[in-house]
């Protein structure tokens, strides 16, 4: 049984009485430790799909299961607890501009139940992990794109999630910074054994670090499997 499963997931949005089906019978299987890429053009349904994985969107039908938990059945309170097991990073980093690097990471630990001292230790460990200790007291506006994304990664990992979801995480970065962030994610995957699911419209990203890939078009998964076999099809 796979670590993350989407089973016959459909998602429709409703405009007045008209249903727009954005995900159509999506079946996805991600194993523990995978770096799983989901690639498709703009409008294909990638963001909706990843929002279904972390429970932000309710499903129209089907099931999402992560590590034996049926995400789609969780209630509001359970869902908040569950979200702590899922880290997420974004194209636009989504850092709080009025808070320092330290403060941004601290936010993720607000409801962690850790003592003040343990929070401080955890934050210092995270700063070390993403190699950004010297920027501890800087504000996001004082950071480069790559540094911002590393802070966002630290924040996403604060509560030791089982999964890291990446939403076009390198699309706002120049090619060289993209390479270094991708390499960094690959190292994290190896070092922490964390499962990574990333959505992207860039083939290069998938080829650089993913071991598995799914191709999505107009809400339909056309193909999925090992990167090597999917991309070597004639
Ligand atoms: P992608 O991430 O691949 O660009 P999205 O998941 O953002 O694709 O969008 C897929 C389709 O769903 C698009 O046609 C988009 O307009 C539509 N869509 C996304 N979110 C909503 C929403 N909240 N209400 C209505 N339509 C939506
Ligand atoms: P603000 O309170 O203005 O939002 P920050 O976002 O910078 O300030 O910090 C959020 C939390 O982290 C606060 O409780 C603050 O005391 C603490 N904090 C900020 N920087 C450090 C630091 N270098 N060492 C220890 N705690 C810090």
Automatic annotation (TrEMBL):
Coiled coil: none
Molecular functions per Gene Ontology: ATP binding; ATP hydrolysis activity
Keywords: Amino-acid transport, ATP-binding, Cell membrane, Membrane, Nucleotide-binding, Translocase, Transport
ABC transporter domain boundaries: 4-234
GO CC, one annotated term: plasma membrane
Superkingdom of origin organism: Bacteria
A GO BP entry: amino acid transport
Keyword Nucleotide-binding: yes
Family: Belongs to the ABC transporter superfamily.
Name used for this protein in its record: ATP-binding cassette domain-containing protein
């Amino acid at each position: 049984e796979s670590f993350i499963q989407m089973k016959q997931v459909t998602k429709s949005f409703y405009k007045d009485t008209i249903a727009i089906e954005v995900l159509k019978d999506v079946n996805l299987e991600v194993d523990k430790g995978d770096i799983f890429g989901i690639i498709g053009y703009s409008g294909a349904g990638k963001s909706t799909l990843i929002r279904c994985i972390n429970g932000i969107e309710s499903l129209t039908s089907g099931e999402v299961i992560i590590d034996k938990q049926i995400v789609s059945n969780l209630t509001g309170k359970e869902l908040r607890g569950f979200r702590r097991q899922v880290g997420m990073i974004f194209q636009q980093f989504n850092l709080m501009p009025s808070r320092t690097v330290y403060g941004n990471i601290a936010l993720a630990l607000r409801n962690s139940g850790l003592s003040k001292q343990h929070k401080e230790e955890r934050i210092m460990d995270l700063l070390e992990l993403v190699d950004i200790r010297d920027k501890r007291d800087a504000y996001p506006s004082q950071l480069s794109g790559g540094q911002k994304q590393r802070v966002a990664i630290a924040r996403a990992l604060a509560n030791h999630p089982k999964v890291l979801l990446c939403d076009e995480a390198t699309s706002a970065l120049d090619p060289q910074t993209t390479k270094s962030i991708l390499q960094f994610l690959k190292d994290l995957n190896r070092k922490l054994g964390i499962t990574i699911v990333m959505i992207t419209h860039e083939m290069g990203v998938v080829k650089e670090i993913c071991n598995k890939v799914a191709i999505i078009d107009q809400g339909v998964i056309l193909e999925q499997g090992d990167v090597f076999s999917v991309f070597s099809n004639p």
